[in-house]
Design brief:
alpha/beta; Lysozyme-like; Muramoyl-pentapeptide Carboxypeptidase, domain 1; 6-stranded mixed sheet; elongated; PGBD-like_sf; N-acetylmuramoyl-L-alanine amidase
Length: about 280
């Protein structure tokens, strides 16, 4: 049965739900007890490529010296075998932001799917180097998980959509996420909606701006300078440190509260940067 949105805790039902979708499912030894702690509420699915056509489920389960596994909950091989490797939190998302996720908290709110694929290149056409068996296993896995959680296809996102600006991520490469979401929607059996909800943002020179608590550098210092001297009534005491700290976030929130049309989240994205008329700095510290 579909689970109402807002499922909390580890998805111990993963293998059963994927198998019920008709997928070729393998269960990696010990997957039910593997993870970096327990999930918060699960809000969606995040899709990745491993960077290699030959990455194994074991490499995802155990990780590597600098990043211990699990690195996702699910691994999909090129022949379409879906291996469940973990039920707990996995280190797959890292730093990033998306409208329906808390900043930098993707690991605790999304189920990660790693596909054994090189990704080809950021500009590669849709499904280049993605065998049919692997691609449709991905579609059906996303659909099965989303249906179980009671979520629409719009809650399937790519790592590049969450962490592209924050980390330079471009996975899953050679996957047009809007086209993938259409295929997931069809598999769920819901009306197809290609796009995942995003806040309206201006195009042009501010398109790549993303500053939030914890980021640092010359662009943050310029933000602090702009707030301090242009909005002294509430940001006059701001320290120009180059580190996006709590005080900077509060000043940004106040600016957003006072500016019609901005979402109040303390994050400086394209819309907030444009409203601030923020001077862009080419090179960060």
């Amino acid at each position: 049965m579909p689970q109402a949105a807002g499922w909390r805790g580890d998805p111990l039902w993963l293998a059963d739900v994927l198998r019920a979708e008709g997928l070729d499912v393998a269960e990696f030894a010990g997957w039910r007890g593997r993870g970096h702690g327990d999930f918060h509420d699960i809000r969606g699915v995040m899709v990745h490529h491993t960077g290699s056509d030959f990455a194994t489920a074991a490499s995802i389960a155990y990780g590597r010296p600098e990043l211990p596994g699990p690195l996702s909950q699910v691994h999909i091989g090129r022949a379409g075998t879906v291996t469940v490797v973990a039920a707990g939190v996995a280190w797959h998302a890292g730093v990033g932001v998306y409208p329906w996720l808390p900043v930098n908290m993707g690991n605790w709110h999304t189920i990660g799917i790693e596909c054994a694929n090189s990704g080809t290149a950021p500009w590669a056409p849709h499904r280049q180097n993605w065998p049919d068996a692997q691609y449709f296993a991905l579609v059906n896995s996303c659909a099965a998980i989303s249906r179980r959680l009671g979520l629409p296809a719009a809650r399937t996102i790519g790592h590049k959509e969450y962490a592209g600006r924050a980390q330079g991520k471009w996975d899953p490469g050679a996957i047009d996420m809007d086209r993938l979401r259409l295929d997931v929607a069809r598999q769920i059996g819901a009306p197809a909606r290609a796009t995942s909800p995003r806040p309206a943002v201006p195009v042009g020179r501010y398109a790549d701006v993303l500053l939030y608590r914890g980021t640092r550098g010359r662009q943050v210092a310029e933000l602090q300078r702009r707030l301090k001297f242009a909005y002294a009534s509430y940001a006059g005491g701001l320290e120009i440190s180059g580190e996006f700290d709590v005080a900077t976030e509060e000043a940004v929130r106040e600016f957003q509260r006072r500016t019609p049309g901005l979402h109040v989240d303390g994050i400086v994205g394209p819309a907030t940067a444009a409203a601030l008329e923020l001077r862009l700095i080419d090179v960060d510290l």
